Amino acid sequence: MKKLPVWTSSIVNTNHAFVFWLLCCSFFSQPTSAQTKVEAFVFETNNRGFLNQAKVEVLSVATGAVLETAQSDANGRVLFTLAPGSYAFRTTKDLFLERIDTVTLDQAPVYLKIALQRRPGYIFDASLAEARDDENTIVDAISGATIEIFNHTADSVALLLKQHPEAFFRFTFEQGNHYTILIRKPGYSAKRIEAYVNIEGCILCLHGLNDFRPGVSENMTAGNTMGTLVANIELRRTTGVPPDESEHLRWIPLADMIQLEKQKSLSRD
Questions:
Q1: Rounded to the nearest 5°, which phi and psi values hold at 263?
Q2: Distance between alpha carbon 160 and the CA centroid of its chain, in Å?
Q3: Which of 40, 126, 214, 248 is deepest in the core (most CB within 10 A)?
């Protein structure tokens, strides 16, 4: 019997390898479980603007377990890729009411609009400028001030802006709280403001601030539960002493000042 050439065995081995490669490709190219793209946008109700750093959690409707978590970007955008099924999207952000949206996904992309409602309270838009004796005098805006807000009701620091680079700041006064605002900058006298929001008989009382008015774009709502306050806070230059730019390093934090005041009040009682 005539023997096969040696190269025939090589062809057989090559064919086996080729078949194995086809099988592997076929196995790994099998479609995986379908995934659905979910693109969500978080914004304030009445189209008042997109909300940055809102926390969006994806929960299983069946178990309530949190499956994924993300934060919205500067455009209020959040992206998820999920398997088809039913999910609850829980969205939270400071100063806004929590919202839950339940969505059933198939394989089609989903675009979700998440409108958050602001908690009752007042947006405080404040600008800083040098004090003037004549309202017709043009004065400079003040940047670089340290701005502190302490919430007496919650007994906690609500805002701390050290050497704030802007000449304005924004804060939301929530209902049922007493706040102290302290603004300091080397070369200027400190400015202290007490704010009572629907507390101690005041719907909204600001002590230490003369110039404020309801905002033009968003006046007080019915019942005076929400709105915007626009304020110009004036700081007066200290006279006779050159400003010490390192003065802020020796300042007592507002929270410590409040605690000392409480101790003194208790000792007098």
A1: -65, -45
A2: 15
A3: 40
Length of the chain measured in residues: 269
| Residue 120 DSSP SS3 | coil
Maximum distance among all Cα pairs of the chain, rounded to whole angstroms:
122
Q: Find all residues with CB under 8 Å of 19, minimum gap 6, and list them.
A: none
Q: Which domains does the chain have, with CATH numbers?
A: 36-116 (2.60.40.10), 121-262 (2.60.40.10)
Q: What is the pLDDT along the chain (269 residues), one digit of tens a residue?
A: 445 454 444 444 555 555 455 455 554 444 446 799 999 999 998 888 899 999 999 999 999 999 999 999 999 999 999 999 999 999 999 878 999 999 999 989 999 999 999 887 888 899 999 988 777 778 889 999 999 999 999 999 999 999 999 999 999 898 899 999 999 999 999 999 999 988 877 878 888 886 555 443 344 454 556 778 888 899 998 887 777 777 777 889 999 999 999 888 888 76
Region of 138 (left: φ > 0; alpha: ψ -120 to 50; beta: rest) is beta
Compute the chain's Rg from CA coordinates. 31
> pTM score > 0.85 for this model?
no
For residue 119, the one-letter residue type is R
Contacts 24+ apart (CB under 8 A), 223-229: 225/120, 225/121, 225/175, 226/118, 226/120, 226/121, 226/122, 227/122, 227/123, 228/122, 228/123, 228/125, 229/122, 229/123, 229/124, 229/125, 229/204
